[in-house]
Specification:
Strand content: under 5%
Order of helices and strands: HHHHHHHHHHHHH
Number of helices: 13
Number of strands: 0
Distance between the termini: 24 Å
Helix content: over 70%
Largest sheet: none
């Protein structure tokens, strides 16, 4: 797996180098394309959560899949409701949780230190996903946040000095995490960080996030799921696609219905921004909670 992840990072890094300067000639954000890439590739990497949820419930003596879907949907709906009531609080919490999740999941090798040390390092590592667009595309990023009723980053606290300090800490955390690993894993961590910098320097915030979320984070996670399903990549891929299609399709339809409804009240691009980020938040919280509970349960057993 380490070799596959290393090759994946090389391909993604070179893709970023090639596509980013080329985008300057277009000077256009294909927001529709971003939406469909997220719906097809991004959402699918969490579409096996029902299988993981079944395993978790089985370990607690429950066999009903209805219970898993009910709890998952309740958490998702609760996040959406809370977002409408407390947008600043929920989005800030989402960004913190997402930074930790990205940092942990994109670290493709075991890393564990004393309590809160590894967690803090994962958060710092993953924070570059949020900090890089704020540093390189501040106005455009804040414009998107304002469509989500989020104004925290308007504060003078988040000046360029603060942002570049956080980016440096993110890079140093990647170096520290990979300190005792081989050259390939160190190079992987550095390439992933540089890829984010390149994307956010050249591309719009949503396009940069789409490239990272779908073609690095999601594909990497999907590859690990494929090998969990079968040792043969070809056989595992077929199983993954067949299992991922139903929930991915349902989620995609819900997202499109939400855009159709919101377009009656907001501009089309604003409706898409809301559905992408609020939708991802509503899926990310139960997804991360499930991963956490599975990890804790595996340690007990």
């Amino acid at each position: 797996m380490n070799s596959i992840n290393f090759k994946h990072s090389i391909i993604f890094f070179n893709l970023c180098i090639f596509i980013s300067p080329f985008y300057l000639m277009l000077n256009y954000e294909p927001i529709i394309l971003c939406l469909f890439i997220i719906l097809i590739i991004g959402i699918s990497h969490g579409s096996l959560d029902d299988i993981k949820g079944g395993k978790l419930l089985k370990s607690f003596g429950y066999k009903s899949g209805f219970l898993f879907y009910s709890v998952y949907l309740i958490i998702s709906l609760l996040i959406i409701i809370l977002w409408l009531i407390l947008p600043n609080t929920i989005l800030l919490l989402f960004l913190i949780v997402a930074a930790y999740h990205f940092g942990k999941e994109d670290t493709v090798f075991p890393f564990k230190r004393k309590f809160m040390v590894s967690e803090s390092l994962f958060f710092l590592k993953g924070s570059s996903v949020i900090i890089a667009p704020l540093f390189f595309q501040r106005d455009a990023t804040n414009a998107i946040f304002k469509t989500l009723n989020f104004y925290v980053f308007d504060s003078s606290i988040f000046n360029n000095q603060f942002l570049i300090t956080f980016l440096c800490l993110s890079f140093l955390s990647s170096i520290y995490i990979s300190n005792k690993k081989n050259a390939e894993l160190k190079a992987l961590m550095i390439m992933d960080f540089l890829s984010l910098i390149i994307l956010n320097f050249f591309l719009t915030p949503v396009l940069a996030f789409t490239f990272y979320f779908c073609f690095l984070h999601s594909i990497r996670h999907s590859i690990s799921l494929i090998f969990e399903l079968d040792r043969s990549f070809k056989a595992g891929f077929k199983k993954f696609v067949s299992k991922a299609i139903p929930l991915t399709l349902v989620t995609g339809i819900i997202f499109l219905i939400a855009i159709y409804f919101l377009n009656n009240f907001y501009r089309f691009d604003e409706a898409i921004y809301k559905v992408i980020f609020i939708g991802l938040a509503s899926l990310t919280f139960p997804h991360i909670l499930l991963e956490y509970l599975l990890e804790k349960n595996e340690k007990k057993t």
